[in-house]
């Protein structure tokens, strides 16, 4: 899929550097963006979040010079953008906006193929690229290529918008609330798709949103902007959730920061506990002995392929002739790939407050309980406690 004929970097992300960039719109007393400095590392997704009017869009559009800065310097891959021809610059930067911004009188294929056409690709290559891009965003080319934007759902239009932004394989992608106009479910699907794409493509993405949860999900780093685009905090989602720089950022992070952190962690990253186990073919007394005399201690009966089958206490194991009927069935288990939020959900709905953890083939790996989750949150908080939260450079 690498198509490096027209792009010096082969489409891989490059660093973007803003140095004391300001924008004052004509006739305005105060600048909309005042002396912003930030480094966006190559191949990372940086999300700009902040209240309405904080200057997110202005900041982003100065990168591709849809808006001209009044002062400061912007470099992309070391090149000063103010020294480049703006039209050429914009062809090398993918741009996708809310409501997709497709040209209504052009078909899906013409929309996606527009920038490759502008940079001089031949017809055959453009055709192939259009189909490849539609495939990439999960739209069947044969079905959608010749439709007009109005013949698509909102979510499909957004997909075409992303396909169009990627078509000429630019190293940089600017996305201004690209999923702002679709329902929450479609939005989640589109976010997942973008994450999957980005894992393969490694573009440098600057993404603007109002939605802090979207920022946490998509961002390698988040820049929380205040008035005139002042950078209130610029850090990883984990660090911002664990240690917001000030009350304004904390307000923006919103309620439930600790719970949101659980969404960023996977069960495989924590140390799971162990309980006594026995397989269904073993005698109930074996499990009873392994559980010992500790009151309330619970063990797991595993099936012949080592998968969690039933929870049982020593007393319950002692009351049956075969472990097939001991205790109660395991209703819900979590896998190593589950988030800690999923694990917490399973723990909270379990009578004994414990969830079995399984590996990739469903085999028993261990257990998690509320203490494990609490300790993880505590550790996260301690890990980031000494962070120097503010910083307008990476
Ligand atoms: N063309 C313009 N002329 C004058 N002022 C403008 C212009 N465009 C934007 N502004 C002002 O600049 C400030 C920043 O606007 P901008 O659109 O960058 O903010 P934003 O954070 O992206 O907002 P939103 O989240 O509502 O889209 C606002 O106060 C806005 O009114």
Automatic annotation (TrEMBL):
Domain ABC transporter: 16-253
Top EC category: translocase
PROSITE patterns linked: ABC_TRANSPORTER_1 (PS00211), ABC_TRANSPORTER_2 (PS50893)
GO molecular function: ABC-type quaternary ammonium compound transporting activity; ATP binding; ATP hydrolysis activity
EC number of this enzyme: 7.6.2.9
UniProt xrefs under InterPro entries: AAA+_ATPase, ABC_transporter-like_ATP-bd, ABC_transporter-like_CS, P-loop_NTPase
Pfam families in UniProt: ABC_tran (PF00005)
Protein keywords: ATP-binding, Nucleotide-binding, Transport
Family: Belongs to the ABC transporter superfamily.
PANTHER family to which the protein is assigned, alphabetical: OSMOPROTECTANT IMPORT ATP-BINDING PROTEIN OSMV (PTHR43117:SF4)
Name of the protein in question: ABC-type quaternary amine transporter
Organism of this sequence: Saccharopolyspora phatthalungensis
